[in-house]
């Protein structure tokens, strides 16, 4: 058995000698091109996401039923929180794209391993901060949605009044709290899964390039 293993090793070594050996510069250029391409794709995806959120933010205001709902709920014709959060979200995506573009330009113009590694780490941090922001906004919007439901929705307010009359208010708030927590958990899980699939794969490849560059520098 050992003899067969030795023969296999010797055969592999002979084959390895015939394989083309890449120089340091060739490996670096390959990793540089791969990293630049990955960041470019992240930029493209973020631009598509920006267009999507702009459309989703503006489209409801063209629906009469949406405007009527705002009138009935707030009595002012427009919900300040909805408008502000939509505008703020679009602004954050624009800033995110700006920093991603800067990261792409940085990777595209670097001329040494150390700077390329720093650019890769910077890009990963930018995307992670963006994902954290979206998770935070998901929690905030979910909380605001439930707050609006309990303070402005007629049916919910009537239910709360009947619960108070029956003396089961504590039970109502405990169940409501569990529903709110479940809603937050669901929203966070959906958003985390979305960004994990969309950006996670690209970031993983980018990190693999970083590890390869780390070995080159050593």
From TrEMBL:
Transmembrane segments: 38-63, 83-105, 126-150, 170-195
UniProt name for this protein: Uncharacterized protein
Organism placement in taxonomy: unclassified sequences, metagenomes, ecological metagenomes
Keyword tags: Membrane, Transmembrane, Transmembrane helix
